Amino acid sequence: MRRIGQILRGYVFWTYARGSVHYDVMVTLILAFIFLAPYWVNFNDKPVMRSPHPMEVLVLPDKDDGFIYEINASAVRHEDDDAIREDLLRVIEPIAGEVEIESYQVVRDSHGNISVYRVRVVR
After folding, report:
1. Where are the chain's structural domains?
2. Among residues 88, 116, 114, which one has the least CA distance to residue 101?
3. Element (H or E) spanning 13, and its range?
4. Confidence class of residue 118 from pLDDT cuts 50, 70 and 90?
5. What pLDDT band is residue 55 in, cutting at 50, 70 and 90?
6. What number is the average pLDDT over the span 57-81?
7. CA 22 vs CA 1, 5, 6, 33, 37: distances in Å
8. pLDDT tens for residues 19-52?
9. Is the pLDDT score of 2 beyond 90?
10. Cα–Cα distance, 32 to 77 (Å, whole number)
């Protein structure tokens, strides 16, 4: 009984020399825990599913060494020109920094509804 107590004490305090049978048993038990525990223990560490950003912005190179930003029409809530420009800047500036809208083009789908705004910006 005393011998078993010494063996268990050696396992708890990790006193066995590297390469010994008891050392190999301890390493095997640790590896078994690492690889087998996820099958029996629920760690609740699944990744959080995130939906994509509702305002996808497509950035295209422009022929004049600039960029064209394509913004979904759902990002624009207003109908007058100044308010449209403000809505477009609200989406573009977090991506591009402080910019000014040089021009924008309304792209319509086959039913005549606005689908995308193509915006040319300057710094």
Report:
1. 2-40, 57-122
2. 88
3. helix 2-13
4. very high
5. low
6. 84
7. 17, 14, 12, 17, 22
8. 999 899 999 999 999 999 888 887 777 766 554 4
9. no
10. 58
Using CA atoms, how far residue 116 sits from 34, 35, 51, 93, in Å, is 51, 50, 21, 17
DSSP state of 82: H
Interhelix angle 21-40/2-13, nearest 10 degrees: 70
Measured in degrees and rounded to the nearest 5, phi and psi for residue 8 equal -65, -40
Give percent of the chain above pLDDT 90. Answer: 19
DSSP-derived 3-state class of residue 108: strand
Task: Classify 20 as helix, strand or coil.
Answer: coil
Q: How far apart are the first and last CA of the chain?
A: 82
Are 54 and 95 spatial neighbours (Cβ–Cβ below 8 Å)?
A: no
* Residue matched to tokens 């606005």: 114
Residue 52 has, within 13 A of its CA and on its CB side, a CA count of 3
